[in-house]
Each structure stands twice: as C-alpha cells, then as structure tokens.
Prior knowledge:
The protein is an alpha+beta fold. It folds into 3 domains: 3-83, no CATH class; 118-224, Butyryl-CoA Dehydrogenase, subunit A, domain 2; 239-373, Up-down Bundle (Butyryl-CoA Dehydrogenase, subunit A, domain 3). Helix content is 43%, strand content 13%. It has helices at 3-16, 33-46, 64-76, 85-98, 101-112, 227-237, 242-264, 270-293, 309-328, 344-352, 362-373, and strands at residues 118-121, 137-141, 144-151, 162-168, 179-185, 191-196, 205-216, 220-221. Strands 1-4-5-8 form a 4-stranded mixed β-sheet. A hairpin with a 2-residue loop joins β2 (137-141) and β3 (144-151). The protein is globular, with a radius of gyration of 21 Å.
Amino acid sequence: MSLSRARYRAWLEEQLGGRFASLRGVTGFVERIEERRAWEQALGEAGYGCIAWPETWGGRDATIAEQVAFAQEYAAARAPARIGHIGVELAGPTTLAYGSEDQKRRFLPDIAAGRAIWAQGYSEPNAGSDLGNIRTRARLEGDRWIVEGQKIWTSLGPIADWIFVLARTEEGSRGPKGLSYLLMPIHQPGVTVRPIRQMTGEAEFAEVFFDGAIAEARDMVGRPGQGWEVAMATLGFERGVSTVVQQMHFASELDELIAVARVNGKARDPLMRQRIADAWIGLQTMRHGLTAALSDEQAQALAEEGLTSKLSWSRWHRALGDLAMDVQGMAGEIGEGGDYAMPPLTRLYLASRADTIYAGSSQIQRNIIAERGLGLPREPRGDR
C-alpha cells in the first residue's frame, strides 16, 4: 500500500469512526445538511476537499494516481456523497481554467475549505439536453447584470449558496451564440428556489426563478458571448476521476443485489444468473476503460475514448435497476416506515430511471460521439 493511500485510509477511518460516524453510508444530497457542511469543512481543513487543485488554491497538486487512490479509499470507507461536488468538480475547475485572478481569489478558497456549496444553473423547461435553447436573459446596467428567467432541475439548488448560470446576454442571439457564464449568490432578492421532489422522496433538484436578480459584472467567467465555450468546458470536467467513486458505488449495488438473490433463491435461476453475470461483465468492462483513460498522468479529463462513458454507464445502470426489481420480486414493492420508505434496491431502480436523461440524454451522447469522436458532419440547423 502506498504512503498516500495509507494516509487517506487512516484519516477517513478516524473521522468516520468518530465525529462523523452517522454519515457513513449516506448517499443522498439533502439530508443532515449541517452535518454534511461540517464534513465538507473537515475535508477542506485536512486538505482533502479538492486534492487535484494547485496548492495555491487549497489543493494538493495530486497526480492522477493519487486522485484515483483517494477516490477509491473514499468509496471503500462508505464516506457520504459530497454535497460540495459541484463546486469542487465543476465551478472550481472552470474558474481555474477561465476565471480572472480576482475570481480565483474570491471563490476558490471557500470551495476548497468547504464553506461554499454551489449549484448548476443550466437546464430550462425548453432547454434540457439542448442547451442552445436557453432563454434566461441578462442585461448589463452599470457594473451589474440583471438576470431574468427560469432554470429547472438545478442540481443542489435547495441547499446551495452560489450558482453558475448560463444566460443570454446578446439581444436577438440564437443557439450557442450570445450566451455568457455568470456566478451569482442564490440568497438574494429576485431569486426564488422551489425544491423538486423526486419519486425517491429526495429533493436534490430545484426550480430557480430569476426576477431582477443580480450578478456582478466582475463575476462573469470569460468574455461576454463566451458562455457556450465555458459551459462545454464545465461539462468536460464532469467526466474525470470522480467516475471512480461512481463505479465503486455501482459495485456495492451489484454486491447487494447478488446477496439478495442468494437469500431469496433467485440465484438458482439460470436466466437470472446469466443476467447477473452480464451485469458483472459490463461493470468490469467499464472499469477497464476508465483505468485506461486515466492512465495518462498528463490527462486531467477523459480522452476521446471517454466520450462513450456516459452512454455506457447510464444504460448499464438502468439495466441494473431493472434487474434489481426482478431479483426482489414482490418484496421490492413493499416499504416499511414513513413516506417514501423502500428497500435500497427499489430506490436504485427509481433513481436509475433518470440516468439516460440528465447530464446529456442518450441521444445527445450519441451526437457527441459522432461529432467529436468520429468527426462526422453535423446536420445544418440554421444558426446552430
């Protein structure tokens, strides 16, 4: 075991065996918020909040190998899902890549220290996977942008302190043109947040309404009209080392499914055994692909081969949800306790329904593979 891995494991065990023991195994994003904020701050104080970042901004300048080791130890310790992940994995890296020195000084330390929770303001009622349809507008008045519009499925909207917003700042623009990338405090007049309850009972998403909300002119990332480029860079940061934790979570779900199948006898069914074996093979294939994509120490995001990652894991995980219900049988439809009480494998099934939609639907993912990976021409669509 490497020195770094041993250090990570010891720290996680100390924290999750003591002060934060109640958070071990917690997977949701909006429960026990005060404890979760304290956890993010503990990670920041220890220098584990964003280990890939430069030391100047609160990170550890960790290599890809060190990042993977920490992600694996974090998942193995059953540490709680990171409520700071949008700041750490999206807003922070985007600011590092495109932000001004002033923005870096004002925003990065609070993200690294776990003091600021961020939300992602992209999707709108008519602009989900097709972000070029965005209608939220911002007009410049003096040194402020006045923002009007609506976002939906805003990740971590109900608990966030700040939000990055893609808005149309050029009158009459269409598609990717005329968009800008703004950083805004959520807790201000002119911003209304309405949590969206999912069928699992959680409410980690929200509708966010902007009615004369303010973004300071100095808090635009990049130039006016450069928002599409910056937004695409943000999405690129989504598919990196954090995928290691996701795949270890998938492995835990598959292990639990196998345990249930052994107890209730479904594992003796040849067809069910074959489906379970296929699920295991699929997970190993994804792991191999991720390991290969992260093997280049110079790469900070997945290479072109990784363009298939979202399409692959989302379809696999939905199929695992279907298998989970078939393994449980009628027992998967019975919950005991309060509202939304259900077996963990049933929660897996319900949550996985959205996998092929969020973060770019499967149709959009196929377009990305065709255009960026295979170099196929894009069908003309007017200004788009």
